[in-house]
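User: Let's play a game. I give you a shape written as tokens, and you guess the letters that built it. Ready? Here's round one.
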């Protein structure tokens, strides 16, 4: 079996990938890195020159960026059923919302959390225009279908759902019925519960050891 290695820190976006790995259900090795230390060391910089997590290595293939990792794992392990078949009508919405979450939504939410405001006259210069427009797009999709890309759970839900859940927690996304319904559905998934428990336990163990 090709070795699957997960580079992470439990207090980072790597939690998204942990969830995706638990959905995939294949064995993987976890390597925990430290901010400002092993993440910036030469061994890890050879894997990700940005010196950030998450990253995975699958045999000789290295993938960084949480959304890209979700997309890669869904295709690398098709038996998990986490992506529509290539060429199917469902593949378009899947790509659309996965990368909408990775681009406009994450940028808009992060700007809000950090207190950045885009002047109205400059909205055309940023990919999301304004945060209300980006959130309205997701809200509209979730009123039409149960999951973000249709009526079946996919890797797009792992990424977009993480953005929605994290955003509501840290007040980057206001709580709306469609978002709360969506996050309640996703956060009840066994794979999400397992992934959260694993990372929470690592955090607790590190606190006790410090």
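Assistant: Ready! My guess for every position:
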């Amino acid at each position: 079996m090709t070795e699957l290695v997960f580079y992470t820190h439990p207090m980072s976006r790597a939690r998204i990938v942990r969830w995706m790995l638990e959905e995939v259900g294949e064995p993987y090795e976890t390597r925990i890195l430290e901010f400002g230390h092993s993440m910036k060391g030469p061994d890890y910089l050879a894997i990700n020159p940005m010196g950030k997590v998450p990253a995975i290595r699958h045999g000789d293939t290295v993938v960084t960026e949480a959304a890209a990792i979700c997309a890669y794992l869904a295709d690398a392990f098709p038996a998990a059923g986490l992506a529509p078949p290539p060429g199917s009508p469902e593949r378009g919405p899947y790509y659309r919302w996965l990368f909408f979450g990775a681009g406009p939504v994450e940028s808009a939410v992060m700007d809000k959390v950090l207190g950045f405001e885009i002047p109205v006259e400059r909205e055309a210069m940023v990919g999301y225009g304004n945060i209300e427009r980006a959130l309205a797009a997701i809200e509209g999709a979730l009123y039409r279908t149960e999951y973000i890309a249709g009526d079946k759970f996919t890797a797009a839900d792992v990424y977009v759902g993480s953005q929605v859940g994290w955003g509501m927690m840290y007040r980057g996304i206001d709580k709306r019925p469609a978002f709360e319904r969506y996050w309640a559905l996703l956060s009840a998934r066994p794979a999400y519960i397992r992934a959260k428990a694993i990372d929470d336990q690592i955090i607790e163990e590190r606190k006790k050891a410090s």
